[in-house]
Amino acid sequence: MIRNLRHAYLQPLHTFSLSISGSFHSSRSLFTHSNPSPSLSLLADRCTSMRTILQIHAQMIVTARILDNYAASRLIAFASLSENGDLKYAFQVFRSIEQPNLFMWNTLIQAHAQAREPWLAIILYKTLRARAISPGEHTFPFLLKASARIISFSTATQLHAHIIHLGFETDVYVSNGLLHVYCSCGLLTDARKVFDEIPQRNVIIFTTMISGYAQNCEPKKALGIFNDMGFAAVEPNEITLCSVLSACSKSGDLELGRDIHNNYIQREGVELGPILGTALVDMYAKNGCIEAATEVFHEMHEKNTATWNAMICGLAMHGHVSDALKLFHEMVGVEKVAPNDITFVGVLSACCHAGLVGVGREIFESMKRAYGVEPKIEHYGCMVDLLGRAGLVEEAERLINSMAPPLRPDVTILGALLGACRKHGKIDIAERVVEHVLKIEPENHGVYVLLSNMHAEAGRWGEVVRLRKVMRTQGLKKVPGFSLVEANN
Question: In the chain, what are the domain boundaries?
Answer without folding.
Answer: 1-100
